[in-house]
Predict the structure.
Amino acid sequence: MNSGRRQQQQHQLHELDGSPVQYHDHTEDRREVSRHLLNAAVKRQTECTVALSNIILRNKLNTSTAVMTDKFRLPARYGAGEKSVWVEYIQLAADYKPAVNLGQGFPDYHAPKHVSKALADIATSDNPLLMQYTRGFGHPRLVQNLSKVYSPLIGRELDPFNEILVTSGAYEALYSAILGHVDTGDEVIVIEPFFDCYDFMIKCAGGIPKFIALKPKTNKENMTSADWVLDEKELSSLFTNKTKMLILNTPHNPLGKVFTKEELELIANLCKKHNVLCVSDEVYEWMVYEPNKHIRIATLPDMWERTITIGSAGKTFSVTGWKIGWAYCPANLMRNLQVVHQNCVYTCPTPTQEAVARSFEIELSRINSPECYFYSLARELLPKRDFLVRTLKENGFNPTIPDGGYFIVADWTNLGKKIDLSTEQDKYKDYRFTKKFAKEAGVLAIPPSAFYSEAHKNLGEDFARFCFIKKDENLALTEKLLKTWNSSK
């Protein structure tokens, strides 16, 4: 074999097995070189086969994963699975740690002593059954006390075991009412802004939400929640033969509107005319500021028969973490709620139900006294409301003064030139404002566009929602932070 031929074979061997190239002037055994070439070729072929097999396996796994992902995707009735405003803003608070959180609606101070003491006593009770399941539709002691509270208020004797349901918060009462009565294709009228779960629950039931917005009659200073009104003709036009339900929220979240008797009569007359149910979300019923009065729509003529009223221990006793709510209505309407409840929640925690029952007994014993928490709560909140309204006004906001509840919706657009929102990527201005404001000023608020349907979100973009059921020192800190932020601009 000549020298050029040997070098060519040695180069081939090097390319195949990576062995170093060596040149010899003496004659090499051709069979040995051929054997090396053959082994190296087999090795390379094996490596290629393994690589190809891995590619095929990955493709199969990717195809299988794609098929599984498609099969196990979120059902269409849940939309795209977007995060709720609460999930997003709780995370925002955790990430940026604003000095004051006026976002979510809960007190940052203690509930009445007798309320927390009731739960503490139950935790150490000699009665072991207080730690076990209780009646599915409501702990007997609690439903009996609910009947004692509400029967005088609605002017009829409530059957505690057939006309009252205890639920996992007012949230589940809404869920059971909507899922229990709305069928595929039914239309449900929703007044905007609305608690964001209404829309979602209606769609889960296969219903079709129809929205109508409360709109301010004016943008003047010292505007109150009473200035936000419905258009009578627009409301009337939404009622059709497909309308199953209207959801009312009074006192209203987030506006604090307390619907007047005339406004409730308009809604009631339309519900009666078109044979429509009314779900009345009244969780802020005890937070009404004089001279306003909370009127239960179930008390209007011929409305008891078609009204499901919802209440909350969390709001009544300032214990939102207990998650105890209720609904009351005629037994024939209640049956539908019971069916949903027994197949999703079944029963609520016995200790908290017992504690709420005992708390009601304390308040019932002083129901005609100004010390009753049902009445003292609003007096306690009034100076907090007025302080935050003044603070917001003095720092460039235009707040709507609420007649009820514990939220203030404030127009922030006068501050638009002081804050650069271009660094925030959200679609809606109020999201961009509240996020940037939390980062710069250290005060967290909620964007009200979250409480509007997609078509009407623009109606909430100029506002931010602030909660004032907070310690006085935290409201004072809010004032300090807003003044500091303003002076730096």
Remarks:
- The chain is about 45% helix and 10% strand.
- The radius of gyration is 33 Å.
